[in-house]
Design goal:
The structure is a single chain. By secondary structure, this protein is mostly helical. The chain has one domain. Helices cover 78% and strands 0% of the residues. It is built from three helices and no strands. Helix 1 packs across helix 3. It starts with a helix and ends in a 7-residue tail after the last helix.
Length: 72
């Protein structure tokens, strides 16, 4: 697997983690990231930072990677 594809897979997985976490917060008032790593810990902040950075990366590269939006 080349580096670009690996970065895309990792970023996509982190965006899914963030989306699922927000879904749990909205549905059950359960923040799974904080439940696992603790509230306000450095590790929790790193997870949030990586999820946010991944979302920016996916947003900026989406058109090139998407079969629907990409160039035909």
């Amino acid at each position: 697997m080349d580096n670009k594809k690996l970065l895309h897979v990792v970023a996509f997985a982190l965006v899914l983690v963030g989306a699922l976490n927000w879904g749990l917060v909205g549905l059950l008032k359960l923040n799974l990231v904080e439940a696992i790593f603790g509230m306000g810990t450095m590790l929790t902040n790193v997870v949030y930072l990586l999820v946010g950075a991944s979302a920016v990366y996916i947003a900026l590269t989406h058109k090139d990677d998407c079969r629907v939006c990409g160039k035909k």
